[in-house]
Amino acid sequence: MTRLRLRLRCENGVKCPLSLRRRIRRAVMTTLRAEGVDGPCEISVLLTDDGGIHALNRDFRAVDRPTDVLSFPMGDVDPRTGRLLLGDMALNVDRAAAQGAEFGHGAAHEISYLTVHSVLHLLGYDHVDEGEMKRAMRAREKHIMQILEPNGIRTEE
Hints:
alpha/beta; 4 strands; about 45% helix
């Protein structure tokens, strides 16, 4: 059984209600289970806004614009705890709200999707081009989202 240590931090006035924390934890756990990760692991999540993620994107990727989510894989094992340190993700709640409205499924669904997407990156999936890796990643996202929301999109918080 997966034992997850989830470090969640909010910055720039972003609110972190319990419902949002639970949604993110559920999306992380569902993704890890679907991918067969069953040992102890750790992921750090930063919830930020357009300005916060813009700075991260510029500083770490030399891309001077905001984005929806960033993933920073590690893959190291903490020698003290034996936990697999999967890495860090930064999730832009401003962009999640805008994309949720644009796609008609709401911010809550978009946050779940972006969390799944980021965890898959932490596990080694990528989508640098329109090739097989991107198709495989999209198929896994779709499968995991169907597990998370088996009766269709749920937009409640």
